[in-house]
Amino acid sequence: MRRGVMIAEGRTVQDGCQEKWLPCGTMKEYWVQYKQQSSDNADWESAAGIAKAFAIGRAESSAVLALLSNVPGHVCSKLNEIVKIRGMTRFLTHDVIGKGTFSIGWTSGVLACEGWSDQLTNSARDHTLVTRMCIQEFRKVDLYLERLVSDHDSVPEQLRRAWSYKDAVKLHQATGAFLWCLDQLQKIAPASQFDDMKKSLRQSFFAKFLDLDLIHMLEEKLPATADIKMVCPFRRAWSFAEKISQGRMEEKEEKAMLAKKELARATYQHVLAMLESDMKILEEQLPGPVEAAAETALDMKYIRDRQQKGKAYVADFCSKNFILEAVNEDLDAALPKFLSLLDSMRGIAGKMYVVCSLDFTVYPAAATYVRKAFECLANVAAMSSSHIGFIFMPVHQKQTTEPAVLKHRRQIEENLMKSKMSLANEVCILFAKPEARVTDGRAMTQISLLSLHQNYTSNSDWNSSSAVTTARIGPAKGVDCFKSILEGLMKGMEIKEADRLVVLDIVPNRQCEMGRAVLQKVLDGENIKYMGFLREDVEKDLRSAMESVVYQHWDSSADAPPKQRPQESKEKQDLKLEILAMKDGSPVFPEQVLMDRFTAGSEYHKEVQKMKAKFEEKHGRVGASTGTSATTTTSQEGRVSGVCDFTIDEGLSPLDTSREVSLPVKTIDQLGEPSSRIGTLVGKAGKPTVVLDKDFGLWLLNPGDAKIKVPCSELCGFGTGAYKNG
Known about the structure:
Elements: E1 3-8, E2 17-22, H1 27-37, H2 47-54, H3 58-69, H4 73-86, H5 88-91, H6 94-98, H7 143-153, H8 165-188, H9 191-206, H10 211-220, H11 232-285, H12 289-321, E3 322-327, H13 335-345, E4 352-359, H14 367-381, E5 387-392, H15 402-418, E6 426-431, E7 445-451, H16 466-470, E8 472-476, H17 479-490, E9 500-507, H18 513-523, E10 528-535, H19 536-555, E11 581-583, E12 586-588, H20 591-595, H21 603-619, E13 679-681, E14 689-692, E15 698-701
Parallel strand pairs: 3-10, 4-5, 4-9, 6-8, 9-10
Antiparallel strand pairs: 1-2, 5-7, 6-7, 11-12, 13-14, 14-15
Helix pairs in contact: 2-3, 7-8, 8-9, 8-10, 8-11, 9-11, 12-19, 17-18
């Protein structure tokens, strides 16, 4: 039997009806072959073309196009079987197929359900008509088609009617929402219980119990805010799953707690075994109390001997390069010592330049002291053309008036003229104030005089100095400013390697900044000699400060002996400790490392604290280990280092190097009323407030609520106050 179709080239037989026969096969295979063999120019890819070719209606041609192009083959087969039994016109309309409810890529997420378009789109995966958010079992079954058949068959035959497109869309939306809810439930439900839940919910879905709640959820919520508990059966399933999940969580927590306790017990036993082993090693290998005392005595003696060497170095250094002389108002006794210093350097190769510094920034009140200072300057400047005076002129300050400043300048000029010193060379000193406040009223410049003796004004070696030719020095601040002055004076001059500079500080300022600047240059290796005439009331403190700088330089130099006593005569101990650490030759209990292994307040945490107390009772508290793990050492470190004065003076004991100073802490209210305080300096720009109470206690207060970090800086101002013996 042959199979074919009559192809009408025209509308009637008379117009030329043509009969074509094709091989047997499926309808789809025939359709493809026919299109290949047909010579007709009709549009076979559109519903209109198909309608024209087959002389059928619009809805029917759209359904044909959908079945041939977008609907998967197995769905077509299933539809064919369903229609054979129930009849096409009695089961569904052509619009249900033609408008794409079975087509790949079609979505029912429109209008009120537009936010669910992705969840309600037919997926091409596995060639099924189910949504992208679905359970694997439902990917094998066309749930939507099953529901169409189920709902149709559940109606009595006399009352059945074909599915319309509008009703099919609603059912498609309900199907997609049902699968999305199942997917959400699977995330929390136990795997063993989910299959039973799914079976029960599927029965409810096919019984039409869920449709209204599912459509309501789609229209009122978005996927990000939707909750499956809006659907009654899912709400019960969710509660049941939560209870099961909570019970399992509590069971897991209980097991985890038991495992944690077991781990803590095993850890404690391990720590206890290691600690007992380390304690036994310490008892066998560490020196006894007598040996430890002897070692400590040798260490103390080494430190004292090293300190004496340092003091001898400081004394020798100061006698050769940095001489400080205590003077009163009469400078006549100090000048011969400076002349002796000059005589000791005569006959040495190279030229000698002398700078006499007189700092009158704050003009001295003693008239005799000022007069003697200018006499000393004149005597030194008259000795050679390479000798010069550098005078800092007075500046206006809060404690002086402008008439007083002018008067002092006039007195300086008169004393220079009487001493036959020149007034021609004025030099402007520029100051740097990088951290100054807006209210800082200190001057940015200061006038100084570079004074020569009148006998050498024309042929002086200093006429080529940069300070003379440019008439300015700086900008700089503090000691660096005085270093800039020395560098500016020597710049531009033909200085040879063998030449040397001698600085005579006739009138130093209160902090002796010229001396500090020279000291830094000398320690840096420059060939400079210094002699300063210090007032008796400040000489002791300034000398101690200068000598301390020299000592620190020697202490860190390669010429100084090691800071700790060498242990060459004694073999290094190799303490193979497992948990204890060694610090400065003594065992340390690693408190932080061990305490972090146990919960605070637990039984084993208290046991570790007892172990610590027992350890410190036997070995003492050297310090707590702060590392992340206990660090063992293979050699004893040095026990003592530093430059402390361990000499016994007037019955006082040596310093305790392990002492920790703990300053008291008070609130602002505990300091009493502001009227009872002697003085208060309010802190600004991140600085602390300084308070002096009625008992002469100095307190640092935080003026705000937030924590502040105070760097090293001047506490009570810069350039104020004076040194005082006491």
